[in-house]
Amino acid sequence: MKFAVIQFPGSNCDFDLLWAIRDIMGVEAEFVWHDERSLTGFDGVLIPGGFSYGDYLRCGAIASFSNIMPEIKRLASEGKPIFGTCNGFQILVESGLLPGVLIRNDSLKFVSKWQALQVENNKTKFTSEYTKNELIHLPIAHGEGQYVADEDILADLKANNQIVFSYVEGNPNGSIENIAGIINKTGNVLGMMPHPERAMEKLLGSNDGVKMFASILKNFVEKIEPIDRVKL
Ligand SMILES: NC(=O)CC[C@H](N)C(=O)O
């Protein structure tokens, strides 16, 4: 199992994501530059946070036309795990791999803080290690994290249990229904504004992100290499 961590001009959480999957979880992973046209040999894709293309137009909009995107879409259609955090989530909605859109925070301010979240759906391949309604704490850091969707999309998300994480103890950006993270219908593409890759060790304030990566490895990886370094 080898993960690709996609780098765009302006990515700034790419090293954190590589560190989380490779150094904490002990799984093979490599950076792949956005201009590449092949993901042959990779079994999963992690899209990091940051400010791809300077956040021009709308965050993630320009990145969604990168040369690597058709390959990410191919892996998505093959049922491989695709995970995007923060700008990665924005890129996933802009490319149509997830429904809805992310716009400026209702405060019109960049928000950087620890955020309480509830695991709404622990029956996904990304969240099976959490308990239902588990309260977790992850960092958020974004200016355009307000998730919006029309009534039909929202009804669809609810009907299919696609809302995976929601903000609790306050909504930091005005997202509809406190939505912090969603999954696609087939259950292999997940996007979320909070940063699990920044909550991998208690020393850093929380290790609540570990269960998400542990879920991915448990549910998507057929042959698991020993992952001694996981500290649940
Ligand atoms: N940390 C990030 O990924 C930032 C996300 C995005 N560029 C924003 O400000 O909304």
TrEMBL record:
MF (Gene Ontology): ATP binding; glutaminase activity; phosphoribosylformylglycinamidine synthase activity
Pathway involvement of the protein, from the record: Purine metabolism; IMP biosynthesis via de novo pathway; 5-amino-1-(5-phospho-D-ribosyl)imidazole from N(2)-formyl-N(1)-(5-phospho-D-ribosyl)glycinamide: step 1/2
Superkingdom as given in the UniProt entry: Bacteria
SMART domains named in the record: GATase_5
E.C. numbers: 6.3.5.3, 3.5.1.2
Catalytic activity: L-glutamine + H2O = L-glutamate + NH4(+); N(2)-formyl-N(1)-(5-phospho-beta-D-ribosyl)glycinamide + L-glutamine + ATP + H2O = 2-formamido-N(1)-(5-O-phospho-beta-D-ribosyl)acetamidine + L-glutamate + ADP + phosphate + H(+)
Keyword Transferase: no
Active site: residue positions: C86 (nucleophile), H195, E197
Annotated localization: Cytoplasm
Gene Ontology terms describing biological process: 'de novo' IMP biosynthetic process
Stored InterPro entries: Class_I_gatase-like, PRibForGlyAmidine_synth_PurQ
Gene Ontology CC: cytoplasm
Quaternary structure annotation from Swiss-Prot or TrEMBL: Part of the FGAM synthase complex composed of 1 PurL, 1 PurQ and 2 PurS subunits.
Primary role: Part of the phosphoribosylformylglycinamidine synthase complex involved in the purines biosynthetic pathway. Catalyzes the ATP-dependent conversion of formylglycinamide ribonucleotide (FGAR) and glutamine to yield formylglycinamidine ribonucleotide (FGAM) and glutamate. The FGAM synthase complex is composed of three subunits. PurQ produces an ammonia molecule by converting glutamine to glutamate. PurL transfers the ammonia molecule to FGAR to form FGAM in an ATP-dependent manner.
Protein name: Phosphoribosylformylglycinamidine synthase subunit PurQ
Taxonomic source organism: Lactovum miscens
Gene of this entry: purQ
